[in-house]
Specification:
Elements: H1 8-34, H2 45-72, H3 119-132, H4 137-153, H5 157-173, H6 177-193, H7 200-214, H8 217-227, H9 240-251, H10 267-281, E1 285-290, H11 291-294, E2 298-304, E3 310-312, E4 316-325, E5 331-342, E6 356-365, E7 370-378, E8 388-399, E9 406-413, H12 414-419, E10 439-443, E11 449-453, E12 469-473, E13 482-487, E14 498-502, E15 509-511, E16 522-523, E17 529-530, E18 534-538, E19 551-553
Parallel strand pairs: 1-9, 3-10
Antiparallel strand pairs: 2-4, 4-7, 5-6, 5-8, 8-9, 8-10, 11-12, 12-19, 13-14, 13-18, 14-15, 16-17
Pfam families: Foie-gras_1
Domain Trafficking protein particle complex subunit: 21-229
GO cellular component, one term: cytoplasm
Length: 554
């Protein structure tokens, strides 16, 4: 048979004979294993099933190329009419039954003498074979599925991924793009986990194609923002402008153009795909992408510009957010949202409400440049009555708005923001310096206020006592509007202790001693009793000076 190989039909028959041998040997091997033959990860029936599928894939490629050449041939009209009688029917009385696999039925009577049939019969047979020869992707899928089960049985993990990628190609050839996208996404995710970056560029291209055909907006944008990262995938630099244009069309609720510039769609395919995309845009679409996990073209870093790890409340803190674009084209986003939260609580990120939220509109990221944003945090004393650990809990770059047809976000969390590089990035430097603190402790401010004067006084039971006190503030700030004075009496022979507490928002107090309190009676300016154990003094009515450390008489 090999000596007669000269055209594509003979090549296909030769490949078909080899794949049939591999498939039959795999079945024989499997029966032998069931009967007790030893098998291992390097020698088992799955290897031969894989070889059989590879030969069938090669035959399918030859058939596709042959049919493509026929469609462009000038004699295509000759192939539209099937020859009569059918040259492939060997049941006729004039033609004996074939003897071996691949034998041409119209040559059985003449091959004994080494000759061929007449030219008309040979030409009709060639035309019939070319018309009926079709790629068999379903059989290839069956062989790959059987090989996959064997690779799972013998724990060949990487070969499983290779088979999944081949199955994705076969599903794409059958126009089952949703199934192909599932296999590609799974293999892509496992390659990211294992830092196996070599096949990622190929997987991204195939994911972009399959998601375009099924109008999967999230997967299409996810593949696009990874392709734009030319630091990780420099081979995509030539198509970056085309990818960016498709992203902008999606932001405006318009169907994207061809996923890749080199991929040409027929008119029927283009109309069908555009109709699918318009059906998607007929409803509001929301999606969210974790930028560090997919190694998007934007790298974010957030830090507090402070030299100390702990500061007091009431001060001002500067937050720096850096966005570095690894794309070679300018990219636009509608909004940048930054959330600062308290990490000292035990709630999860989803339940934790942000203490501060900052928004920046109309974000433009220039190619291969770092864009910095600075935000001012006023640490209000009311929010920090106890020590808190504040961190940048989330950062979002938004596509569109909440009221637009398409709304999506690129998200970063605390861990990735402190590192400044994505989890899956492999072209990073350990010398990449970052300034600032990833987290800051904020503790309540202690008021520098003290009492001077007659802090101790003796009085008989029922006697009205007068004490002259001076409140001295050592801070360069204004005194609070009201002052609460608390008096305590001890049932002992020691001096009477007292405490003064300023009615500020921080509830800061100065206590001379701690004691068990007993009820006291207070008189107001009209010498009438006040039914309370505390006395409030209006600071605004007192005479104070503008200089710091000035005493106030009470």
């Amino acid at each position: 048979m090999h000596s007669e190989i000269g055209d594509d039909d003979d090549d296909n028959d030769a490949i078909g004979c080899i794949l049939l041998q591999c498939s039959m040997f795999a079945d024989l091997f499997e029966r032998a294993v069931v009967n007790g033959l030893a098998a291992m990860s390097t020698q088992h029936p799955g290897i031969h099933l894989h070889a059989s599928a590879d030969h069938l894939r090669l035959a399918n490629e030859l058939i596709d190329s042959m049919r493509s050449a026929l469609s462009l041939s000038s004699s295509v009209a000759d192939h539209l009419i099937s020859p009569q009688p059918d040259p492939l029917q060997s049941q006729q009385s004039s033609w004996p039954t074939v003897v071996f696999y691949g034998q041409r039925p119209w040559r059985v009577s003449t091959e004994s003498g080494g000759g061929l049939a007449d030219s008309i019969t040979e030409n009709n047979a060639r035309i019939t074979l070319e018309q009926r020869c079709m790629p068999n992707h379903k059989r290839c899928l069956a062989l790959l599925s059987s090989a996959m089960s064997q690779f799972k049985k013998y724990k060949c993990v990487r070969m499983q991924r290779h088979i999944m990628l081949l199955m994705a190609d076969e599903y794409a050839a059958l126009n089952h793009h949703s199934k192909a996208l599932q296999f590609i996404s799974h293999v892509l995710w496992e390659c990211r986990i294992e830092k196996f970056t070599l096949p990622i560029s190929l997987l991204l291209s195939r994911s972009l194609m399959s998601s375009f055909f099924v109008a999967d907006l999230k997967e299409f944008v996810s593949s696009s923002v990874q392709i734009l990262n030319i630091h990780s995938f420099p081979s995509f630099e030539s198509i970056s402008a085309h990818i960016a244009m498709n992203i902008n069309r999606i932001r405006n609720a318009q169907p994207p153009l061809s996923p890749l510039p080199s991929f040409q769609l027929s008119d029927a395919q283009l109309i069908a795909c555009q109709q699918q995309w318009m059906n998607v845009f007929s409803e509001r679409v929301f999606f969210s992408l974790s930028a560090p996990r997919i190694d998007a073209f934007v790298r974010a870093h957030a830090s507090f510009l402070c030299t100390e790890q702990a500061i007091a409340s009431g001060s001002t803190l500067i937050l720096k957010v850096s966005l570095y674009s690894c794309a070679c084209v300018a990219m636009h986003f509608e909004r940048l949202r930054v959330n600062v939260s308290d990490a000292s609580t035990t709630t999860t990120n989803a339940e934790r409400l942000p203490m501060f939220e900052f928004l920046s509109e109309n974000i433009e990221l220039k190619p291969n440049c770092e864009t910095n944003f600075f935000y001012e945090l006023n640490l209000d004393v009311n929010e920090f009555l106890e020590t808190k650990l504040i961190v940048v809990s989330g950062l979002n770059l938004e596509f569109g708005s909440l009221h637009s047809c398409v709304y999506g976000t690129l998200d970063w969390e605390f861990t990735s923001l402190t590192m400044g590089v994505p989890e899956s990035a492999y072209r990073t430097s350990m010398l990449d310096s970052r300034i600032g603190m990833p987290s800051i402790k904020v503790y309540p401010r202690e008021a520098s206020v003290r009492l001077e004067g007659d802090l101790k006084g003796d009085a008989l039971l029922g006697q009205v006592a007068n004490l002259s006190l001076k409140l001295v503030c050592d801070e360069n700030e204004v005194l609070p509007e009201r002052l609460r004075v608390e008096w305590y009496a001890e049932s002992c022979k020691e001096d009477v202790p007292s405490s003064v507490q300023t009615a500020t928002s921080t509830s800061t107090s100065i206590t001379t001693a701690q004691s068990k309190s007993s009820p006291l009676l207070f008189l107001n300016s009209q010498n009438k009793l006040i039914d309370s154990d505390e006395l409030c003094v209006d600071i605004a009515s007192l005479h104070t000076t503008e200089t710091p450390n000035s005493p106030v008489e009470v």
